[in-house]
Every structure is written in structure tokens, then in C-alpha cells.
């Protein structure tokens, strides 16, 4: 006589298998998160975030970026509206008496009927690593004081946390994105900005006053940590009809970057070292074909990167090379054809892009075999290839890109049209975690799936989850929409039952955990998921999430009334790490 539970288990397994097959037939995961296709509105000119600092000619729009090749320099920029005023930055290390001065330069520009304020850029160099500095700009009673912290000395195991924002704009959603980034307990130390800053060019005659409001908006963060700039299409400001035919004029006057330090000949492409990362910024809106200055520079630089020193190689560009949204579909293709072989050969870890106003993460894929005549045009998995992440979801007034190409291609691991920001958290030379934090609804749900990079990691994670038995209760807001389809619940309780699935898993597999194939694991997970979903349906009360990763648990960030939770952590390093 077969015990009942065995029968039940068999049914679940069968159902799990079906679900599992479904999972394998599709590409990655498209979030079921439904949202109104509401345009976001720019914050009005009299908003608090745009307030002009008090006092005659007070410095405003203060922002900093890295000022040299390896992080001992900072470029400090600010604008004085009425007259040039002082060009000097006074700065000192925390706990020291000695104040230093550095003089910068001042530039102005005209754009149609707009005349800029006096834009100051001052590079301070030879700072100590890993030190807090205070600095002051302005004179007399309009002097303003800020601070920043220099990165640790460049080295392979230096932990460092980068934030990621793209296509920010200046809407209420932009403000939410920035606020969430600031409040994220992961504490980004420098921001990688993947292009499309102010969206001033969406206004009649590219109203450059919206560049100024944007500068004042981001000051609260950009005056304290470097924003690493990438130029997007909204920085081109090419408008010959109104006599403006010099591309990138407002952008290049307002945002200086240390391009000469990396032997670049243009501020639109350059590279820096920071902590354990080597960051290459590229310009998709400048010539990049063979023989062009950008191509020559890039192909030299990428071969020079010393992965013993900076194991993490990150590329930033504006339009994504891999994009399965309808919006801007194939726009990154020319860039892909030119540069993907280099990215694969030189083992770029991750390529961040914006442009598409949504989030998407790819598998590690390569399409370099395709050469037009051989027909091999399907991207294939390759552990040497980068992960491509689109993070153009900062929240600008053009709204979200909700339309996706169907079906989801295999290379696309996860996609969702929500505003948010990313965190790329480097632990050491082999481990880094990427998480994406959506802004939505005061509550962020887990929507992405789990990945087991290697079998040894699997056993580690399983044990880890097993130990970290945790049941958490939380209230759901009524606007919550999720993959379990419990819309319109004003109040519910979410329970995470990691331990249950783990219990079952261990009893199924005995001591041979390390050889569980992913398919079996998924099967079991899905069958339990299904069972719980049935209960959910019946009771209409609970949401149960099976969660088998201690990374996710560690990544759970509770804050105020909402939970910011990385839908997917990538153990990038497990497959890459330093190039061999
Ligand atoms: C869209 O935005 C308008 C104005 O902010 C708001 O009144 C409306 O409720 C929103 N619609 C949805 C479906 O959220
Ligand atoms: C700054 O000083 C000037 C002259 O001393 C004075 O007129 C002005 O009101 C002061 N401004 C502020 C913001 O205190
Ligand atoms: C923007 O966000 C900040 C911080 O959350 C808040 O203080 C401010 O009032 C917001 N401004 C607008 C216009 O939403
Ligand atoms: C690469 O970096 C390591 C560590 O800083 C250093 O020892 C080595 O000499 C460098 N290699 C080259 C070719 O510069
Ligand atoms: C991955 O790409 C590299 C470089 O193109 C190639 O040498 C290698 O064979 C590829 N590996 C797989 C598994 O396709
Ligand atoms: C790198 O960091 C990971 C995660 O924090 C840790 O498990 C691993 O032991 C570290 N490796 C080294 C060589 O320190
Ligand atoms: C949620 O409630 C609204 C209003 O009661 C209703 O129009 C809508 O169809 C409901 N949605 C779902 C998915 O049940
Ligand atoms: Fe864009």
C-alpha cells in the first residue's frame, strides 16, 4: 500500500514538471507586475527640490565626479548665477586643521535665447584614499560647505558599492528614484549614470532653464558622491532649426569628466579605475566605427586593463545592445556589431545601459558568431560574455516603455517596466551582487527567479537557507499587483517559507545535494509553489513565497513601511572573476 503522501508528492511532482517545462519553453521571466501607463510629470519650477540657495550669487548645482584615473582626484563643479565670483575651492581632510585651496576655471555658453550662469569646474588632486573631505565653494556669507569620501586605493579585493541610475529626468518619479537610492541601506558610494540627464530638450527650444533645475535637483546627492557620467541622446541638443548645431553643448559645458587621464581625446568616452573596478564609458552618439578616435581609444584601453589590479570590468553606454522591449528595439545593434567581440574576448563583466525606460537583465550571452552569411544569429550562452543590464528607468517625463517583444527571447533573464535604480555591490575579486530596486507602491515584491550558478554554490546556498529559517509577516498595500494575482487585497500577510521547501529538498536528495540538477530543484520548487497557490486561492488570505536563497534574505532591505528587495541577485563572479 502506497502511503497517501507519496501519491500527493507524485501529483505535485507531475504538476511541477509541467510548470517546469513551461519555464524552459519561455525565455526568462517577464514580470506580471501591471501598472497604469501614466505619464509622469515634471516637478513644477517652484518645487522644493529646485529651490535656489539663498544669498546673492550663491553657488548652486554643486556636483562632483572623479577627477583623475585612479580616484585621488575630484572635479568639483558649481554655477554662480549673477557674476563669476570666486573660482576657488577650499578643502580639508576630516580631523585636520590644514586647509587647501585649488582654483578652477569658469565657462559660460549660450543656447538659442538662453545664457548660462557661470559654470565653475575645479579639479582637486592628490587626495588621500578612503578619506572624508570637506569642501567649500562661494564667498562671504554665501559660502556653501559639502563633503565627500574618496574611494579606497585601487586593488583587487576592495569592496565598493556603485549605484546605477539612467534616464532620470526631473519628474516626481525621478525624485522617488533618487530618494530610494539615497535611502537604500546598501549605501551606494558612487553613482554610475547611464545617460539622459535632465530632459531639458523636451521643452520648447530646449529650454536650458531645465538644465539648471536638474542641477539643483541632483545636488543633494551629486555634491557628496561622484556621479560618473555617460552621454545619452538627450544630451545631444542638436537643433539647427534654432541655430544650435554643436552637439552636446550644454552637457559638455556643465559636466566635466577626467577624459584626458585615460588618454581619451573626447569627454564623451573615457575610463577610470575606482576601487576594484575598471569603468569604461562609451558614446553611442559619436563616431564609433572602425578607425574612428573612439574605436582606436577603446580597442587600446580594453587590452590594457590589468585584471589583477581591477578584476571588475564594467562598461557604460546609453542604448542597450541587448533589448527585448519594443522601444528602441535594435538601436544598439550597430554598437553591438562593432564592440561585442571585444567585450567577450576581454571578459567584460557587465554592460550597463539606459535609453529604454524599463529594466531588463540578460543572461551571459554572446552573438559574436553571427557574420551575416552563416545564419548563426541566435545569441548563445557563454560564460565569458557580459551580463547586459538596462536600467533606463529613472523616471523621466516620457514615461515607461511597457511594450515588450513577444515571446521573451531566451537571452533575456528578467524584464519589467517599472521605475527604479540598481546597486552593484562588489565584495571582492570574485563576488559581486547586482540588485534592482523598483520604486513602486511603497512595497517591492520579489518577482525575479533564482539562479544557481554552480553546484558547490548550490550546496552552500541550500544549507544557508536551511539555517536561516525565517517566517516574516507583512502587510500588503492595496495597490499591490503581483505574480500570484492577489490584486485588490487591502490587507494580507506574506509568509516566506524557505525552510519548508528546503526541508523537502533535503529529504528528497539525502546527502547528494551538490548534484541536484537544476531541473529537479525547479520541479520540486514549482510543485510546492503550486500547492501553496492553491491554498492561496482557497483562503484568499495568504501569499506564500518560496525562496531558496540566502542572498535574497541578506538582500532584503526593510525600511519604513516598505520592503526594497532585489528581485534577482547575480553572483557574477562565480563564472567570471578575473580573466585568466
Ligand atoms: C494617472 O495619473 C492621474 C494624475 O496624476 C491620477 O489622477 C490617476 O489616478 C492616475 N491613474 C492611474 C490608473 O493610476
Ligand atoms: C550677505 O551679506 C550681504 C552684505 O554684507 C548682505 O547684504 C546680505 O543680506 C547677506 N546675505 C545673507 C543671505 O545673509
Ligand atoms: C522630493 O523628495 C524629497 C525627499 O524624499 C522630498 O523631501 C521632497 O519634498 C520631494 N519633492 C517633490 C517635489 O516631490
Ligand atoms: C597588474 O597589477 C598588479 C597588481 O597591482 C601588478 O603587480 C602587475 O605588475 C600589473 N601588471 C601589469 C602588466 O602592469
Ligand atoms: C565563448 O566565447 C569565447 C570567445 O569568443 C570562445 O572562445 C568560447 O569558445 C565561447 N564558449 C562557448 C561555451 O561558447
Ligand atoms: C568573496 O566574498 C564572498 C562573499 O562575501 C565570500 O564568500 C568569499 O569567501 C570571498 N572570497 C575571498 C577570496 O575573500
Ligand atoms: C480590482 O477592483 C477594481 C474596483 O473594485 C475592479 O474594477 C478591478 O477589476 C479589480 N481587479 C481585479 C484584478 O480583480
Ligand atoms: Fe535615451
UniProtKB/TrEMBL annotation:
Swiss-Prot/TrEMBL catalytic activity = a phosphate monoester + H2O = an alcohol + phosphate
Note the superkingdom of the native organism.
Eukaryota
For this protein, the Enzyme Commission number is 3.1.3.2
Keyword Iron-sulfur belongs to the record: no
The record's listing under InterPro entries reads: Calcineurin-like_PHP (IPR004843), FN3_dom (IPR003961), Metallo-depent_PP-like (IPR029052), MPP_PAP (IPR041792), PAPs-like (IPR039331), PAPs_C (IPR025733), PAPs_N (IPR015914), Purple_acid_Pase-like_N (IPR008963)
Class of the enzyme per the UniProt entry, highest EC level: hydrolase
MF (Gene Ontology):
acid phosphatase activity; metal ion binding
Q: Which cofactor does it need?
A: Mn(2+); Fe cation; Cu(2+); Zn(2+)
Using the record, list the residue span of the signal peptide; answer none if the entry has no such feature: 1-22
Q: Per the database entry, which stretches of residues form a coiled coil?
A: none
Residue ranges occupied by any Fibronectin type-III domain in the UniProt entry? 58-153
Keywords assigned by UniProt, alphabetized: Glycoprotein, Hydrolase, Iron, Membrane, Metal-binding, Signal, Transmembrane, Transmembrane helix, Zinc
TM ranges are: 528-546
Q: Does the record carry Zinc as a key word?
A: yes
User: What does the sequence similarity comment in the record state about its family?
Assistant: Belongs to the metallophosphoesterase superfamily. Purple acid phosphatase family.
What is the designated name of this protein? Purple acid phosphatase
Species of the source: Camellia sinensis var. sinensis
Amino acid at each position: 500500500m502506497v502511503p497517501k503522501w507519496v501519491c500527493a508528492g507524485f501529483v505535485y511532482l507531475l504538476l511541477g514538471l509541467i510548470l517546469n517545462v513551461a519555464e524552459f519553453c519561455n525565455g526568462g521571466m517577464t514580470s506580471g507586475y501591471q501598472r497604469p501607463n501614466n505619464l509622469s510629470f515634471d516637478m513644477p519650477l517652484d518645487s522644493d527640490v529646485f529651490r535656489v540657495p539663498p544669498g546673492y550669487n550663491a553657488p548652486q548645482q554643486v556636483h562632483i565626479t572623479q577627477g583623475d584615473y585612479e580616484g585621488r582626484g575630484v572635479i568639483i563643479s558649481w554655477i554662480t548665477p549673477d557674476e563669476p565670483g570666486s573660482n576657488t575651492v577650499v578643502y580639508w581632510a576630516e580631523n585636520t586643521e590644514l586647509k587647501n585651496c585649488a582654483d578652477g576655471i569658469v565657462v559660460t555658453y549660450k543656447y538659442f535665447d538662453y545664457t548660462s550662469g557661470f559654470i565653475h569646474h575645479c579639479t582637486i588632486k592628490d587626495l588621500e584614499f578612503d578619506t572624508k573631505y570637506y569642501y567649500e565653494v562661494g564667498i562671504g556669507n554665501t559660502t556653501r560647505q559639502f563633503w565627500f569620501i574618496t574611494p579606497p586605493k585601487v586593488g583587487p579585493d576592495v569592496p565598493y558599492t556603485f549605484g546605477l541610475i539612467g534616464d532620470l529626468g526631473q519628474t516626481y518619479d525621478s525624485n522617488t528614484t533618487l530618494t530610494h537610492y539615497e535611502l537604500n541601506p546598501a549605501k551606494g558610494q558612487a553613482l554610475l549614470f547611464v545617460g539622459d540627464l535632465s530632459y531639458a530638450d523636451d521643452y520648447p527650444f530646449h529650454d536650458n532653464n531645465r538644465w539648471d533645475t536638474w542641477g539643483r535637483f541632483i545636488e543633494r546627492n551629486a555634491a557628496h558622491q561622484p556621479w560618473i557620467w555617460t552621454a545619452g541622446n538627450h544630451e545631444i541638443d542638436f537643433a539647427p532649426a534654432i541655430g544650435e548645431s554643436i552637439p552636446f553643448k550644454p552637457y559638455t559645458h556643465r559636466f566635466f569628466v577626467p577624459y584626458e587621464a585615460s588618454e581619451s581625446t573626447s569627454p564623451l568616452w573615457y575610463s577610470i579605475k575606482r576601487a576594484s573596478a575598471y569603468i569604461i564609458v562609451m558614446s553611442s552618439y559619436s563616431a564609433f566605427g572602425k578607425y574612428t578616435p573612439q574605436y582606436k581609444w577603446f580597442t587600446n584601453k580594453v587590452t590594457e586593463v590589468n585584471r589583477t589590479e581591477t578584476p571588475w570590468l564594467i562598461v557604460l553606454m546609453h542604448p542597450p545592445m541587448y533589448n527585448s522591449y519594443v522601444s528602441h528595439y535594435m538601436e544598439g545593434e550597430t554598437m553591438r556589431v562593432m564592440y561585442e567581440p571585444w567585450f567577450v574576448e576581454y571578459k567584460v563583466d557587465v554592460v550597463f545601459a539606459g535609453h529604454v525606460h524599463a529594466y531588463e537583465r540578460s543572461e551571459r550571452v554572446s552573438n559574436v558568431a553571427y557574420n551575416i552569411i552563416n545564419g548563426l544569429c541566435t545569441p548563445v550562452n557563454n560564460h565569458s560574455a557580459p551580463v547586459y543590464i538596462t536600467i533606463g528607468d529613472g523616471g523621466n517625463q516620457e514615461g515607461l516603455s511597457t511594450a515588450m517583444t513577444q515571446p521573451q527571447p531566451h537571452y533575456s533573464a528578467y524584464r519589467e517596466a517599472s521605475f527604479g535604480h540598481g546597486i552593484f555591490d562588489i565584495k571582492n575579486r570574485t563576488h559581486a551582487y547586482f540588485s534592482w530596486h523598483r520604486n513602486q507602491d511603497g512595497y517591492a515584491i520579489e518577482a525575479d527567479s533564482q539562479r544557481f550558478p554552480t553546484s558547490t554554490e548550490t550546496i552552500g546556498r541550500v544549507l544557508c537557507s536551511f539555517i536561516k529559517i525565517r517566517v516574516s509577516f507583512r502587510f500588503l498595500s492595496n495597490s499591490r499587483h503581483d505574480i500570484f494575482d492577489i490584486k485588490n487585497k487591502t490587507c494580507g500577510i506574506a509568509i516566506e517559507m524557505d525552510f519548508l521547501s528546503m526541508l523537502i529538498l533535503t529529504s528528497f536528495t539525502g546527502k547528494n545535494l551538490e548534484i541536484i540538477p537544476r531541473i529537479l530543484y525547479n520541479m520540486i520548487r514549482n510543485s510546492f509553489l503550486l500547492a501553496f497557490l492553491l491554498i492561496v486561492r482557497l483562503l484568499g488570505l495568504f501569499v506564500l513565497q518560496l525562496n531558496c536563497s540566502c542572498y535574497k534574505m541578506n538582500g532584503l532591505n526593510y525600511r519604513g513601511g516598505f520592503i526594497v528587495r532585489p528581485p534577482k541577485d547575480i553572483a557574477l563572479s562565480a563564472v567570471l572573476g578575473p580573466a585568466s
